[in-house]
User: Fold this.
Amino acid sequence: MEGTELIAFNIIATVGTARSNYIGAIDAAAEGNFEEAEKLIKEGQDAYVEGHDAHAKLLTQTAQGNAVTMDLLLTHAEDQLMSAEAFGILAERFVTLYKKVYNK
Amino acid sequence: MAKKIVLFCAGGFSTSLLVNKMKEAAAAKGKEYEIAAYAVTQFDEVGLNADAILIGPQVRYVVAKLKTEHPELKISDIPMKMYGTMDGKGALELAEKLIGEE
Assistant:
């Protein structure tokens, strides 16, 4: 498997994990389990950073004049990245909201 | 009949590449499996008669629910590193463990 393809899969796996964690955090908060929710958000952020770094390397490579071939796989990886970012922002707000619901 | 291994992710797209890697790994071991990838929304159509079910990290949040709803099914999530490196050999071994074949 070529370099860019492998980076794309690394991004999909890491930010995909982050997204799953963020959704899990919302589910945990809905059950009133805030310790678990915050743990999941933290783990999600760690995984997200890993994927974000991999993506940043591609940006650096492009800036250095070595253009990255844009294909559907990389588009998919960026799509997952954006979705994870949005879920991260929302998950934190949902946890805050559920804390109010549960008077925590 | 060949055992059926089914993988699920958000759209079944990126996971289908892992399926190819798993097929290569199976061929290298001289084993024959029916391996396919689908979107997790198709679970009820294609997941219920599978011998092993692997869930991609993008949709790992469904694993707990699926295990509760279908205690009879053999379900595992695919670890992030395994998925990110497209480790077909590792994923095949994971599925074989679920099936009980090593």
